[in-house]
Write a structure and sequence with these properties.
The chain is an alpha+beta fold and 263 residues long. It folds into two domains: 125 residues, Diaminopimelate Epimerase, Chain A, domain 1 (Roll); 122 residues, Diaminopimelate Epimerase, Chain A, domain 1, CATH 3.10.310. 19% of the residues lie in helices and 41% in strands. The protein has an 18-stranded mixed β-sheet that branches. The radius of gyration is 18 Å and the shape is globular. It starts with a strand and ends with a strand.
Length: 263
């Protein structure tokens, strides 16, 4: 039986910007090897697989290479798809059961708000090869359970990054986010995210990274809510509001295509 699939650009209201994710809503459970094969076929940063449950949806995320524990943009895309195709009523929350616990999305003032775990970073020494791979002099380096975060001197340095991805793939982590404050502050900070070890050379806009970047810049800037711009070639905006062990991430989304898997 054909499996419906949509592709959604997340963290943008403009088509062909932000971060594209594929979303499959399954009528019955499928095994992980099938989901991994579909994700490799789609060749996007993440493909999301939804399985209806009595109290929401099971949600799993796959890159072209691996299953991941937390993904923001494909969660945003999943909620958007459920509302847009009428599976969920326009004002009903989207509730997901994931490897990172329960996640909830709600529509608010033209944005989608996501209740995510906070993933703050702890200061650490940069691991061997990190600075050389990024070709920068770090101002500050931290680590959370997924990634390294590297603060550099200014936004221009972030935008100009051209890392050695082969060397970066030898660093033992999911990915590396590089960030700096913005002057003047159209946004509060900029970032880029590289995850060659997970099969993603550069992620266009990374929701889960803002579970770290949001608390970091909220504290640094003394602001209860911060706005980040991820300065990839596609670009995208993420709002972040830390709430103790949780963080509210907000973004927009637009559907790009609809189809079916015919296997």
């Amino acid at each position: 039986m054909p499996v419906p699939l949509v592709q959604v650009d997340a963290f943008t209201a403009v088509p062909y910007r932000g971060n594209p994710a594929a979303v499959c809503v399954l009528a019955a459970p499928r095994d992980a090897s099938w989901m991994q094969a579909v994700a490799a076929e789609m060749n996007l940063a993440e493909t999301a697989f939804l399985e209806p449950r009595t109290d929401g949806f099971g949600l799993r995320w796959f890159t072209p290479a691996v299953e991941v524990d937390l993904c923001g943009h494909a969660t945003l895309a999943s909620a958007h798809a459920l509302w847009e195709d009428g599976t969920l009523a326009p004002h009903a929350p989207a509730r997901f059961h994931t490897r990172s616990g329960p996640l909830t999305c709600e529509r608010r003032d033209g944005w989608i708000e996501m209740d995510f775990p906070s993933e703050p970073a702890t200061a650490c020494e940069p691991p061997p090869g990190l600075a050389a791979a990024l070709r920068v002099v770090p101002k500050w380096v931290g680590r959370n359970r997924f990634d390294y975060v590297v603060e550099v001197e200014d936004a221009a340095t972030v935008r100009a990054l051209a890392p050695d991805l082969a060397t970066l793939a030898t660093v033992d982590c999911r990915g590396v986010m590089v960030t700096a404050p913005v002057e003047p502050r159209e946004h509060d900070f900029v970032s880029r995210f590289f995850a060659p070890r997970a099969g993603i050379p550069e992620d266009p806009v990374t929701g889960s990274a803002h579970c770290c970047l949001g608390p970091l810049w909220s504290e640094r800037l003394g602001k209860p809510e911060v706005v980040g711009y991820q300065a990839s070639s596609r670009g995208g905006v993420v709002r972040a509001r830390p709430r103790g062990p949780r963080v509210t991430l907000s973004g927009q989304a637009v559907t790009i295509l609809r189809g079916h898997l015919v296997e």
